[in-house]
């Protein structure tokens, strides 16, 4: 007697399983890149670490570069969403109190060695690989535009008079953070907040202004 055919899994369940596979592959890649660099993260090595076949990899990503782009997009989207939620909580606060809420987000990220190192590694990989650089450039521009938007929001809300344009301020802040991540131990990251606050206040002119009433 033939065994009855197994019922087809609901589409939602298949999507959930694929999402879990994708997430595990990305997490495995993140850990390998953080420990040994992009060059050491082969597709076979990523699959072995995640416990999947290479077929599972190619069901989710067309190439290693596809996975790398997904890593940075996922990471930056989460950071920007977190910053937006935090900015919404600064309504009516002074600039100093606003920065006291916003800047710890960067400290938290700096204290996550794998995630923070991978961000730096992917920037370096883009410098070394022209093909990856072409794909990475619009992603970098997109998240830099988000940081610029957040910077402009703080400038407008607190009626600041920056000495340089907002895009350059956003770039300087992220460049400072990237440099600090590569040079400081995770337990030294708490010093970032005071330094980043001083840098932001200096570039936006806040350090030279008399405190004003925050705009609604």
From TrEMBL:
GO molecular function: DNA-binding transcription factor activity; transcription cis-regulatory region binding
PROSITE patterns: HTH_TETR_2
Gene3D superfamilies: Tetracycline Repressor, domain 2 (1.10.357.10)
Segments forming domain HTH tetR-type: 19-79
The entry's keywords: DNA-binding
Keyword DNA-binding appears in the UniProt entry: yes
DNA-binding region: 42-61
Organism of provenance: Paracoccus shanxieyensis
Signal peptide range: none
UniProt protein name: TetR family transcriptional regulator
């Amino acid at each position: 007697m033939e065994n009855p055919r197994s019922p087809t899994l609901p589409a939602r369940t298949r999507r959930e399983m694929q999402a879990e596979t994708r997430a595990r592959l990305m997490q495995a890649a993140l850990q390998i890149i953080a420990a040994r660099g992009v060059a050491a993260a082969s597709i076979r090595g990523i699959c072995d670490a995640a416990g999947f076949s290479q077929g599972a990899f190619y069901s989710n990503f067309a190439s290693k570069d596809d996975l790398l782009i997904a890593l940075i997009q996922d990471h930056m989207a989460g950071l920007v969403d977190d910053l937006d939620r935090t900015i919404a909580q600064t309504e009516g606060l002074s600039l100093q109190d606003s920065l006291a809420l916003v800047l710890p987000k960067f400290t938290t990220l700096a204290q996550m060695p794998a995630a923070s190192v991978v961000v730096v590694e992917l920037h370096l990989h883009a410098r070394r690989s022209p093909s990856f650089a072409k794909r990475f450039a619009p992603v970098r521009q997109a998240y830099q535009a988000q940081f610029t938007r957040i910077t402009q929001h703080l400038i407008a809300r607190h009626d600041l008079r920056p000495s340089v344009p907002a895009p350059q301020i956003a770039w300087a802040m992220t460049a400072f953070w990237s440099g600090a991540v590569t040079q400081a131990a995770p337990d030294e990251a708490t010093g970032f907040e005071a330094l980043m606050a001083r840098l932001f206040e200096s570039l936006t002119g806040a350090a030279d202004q008399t405190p004003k009433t925050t705009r609604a």
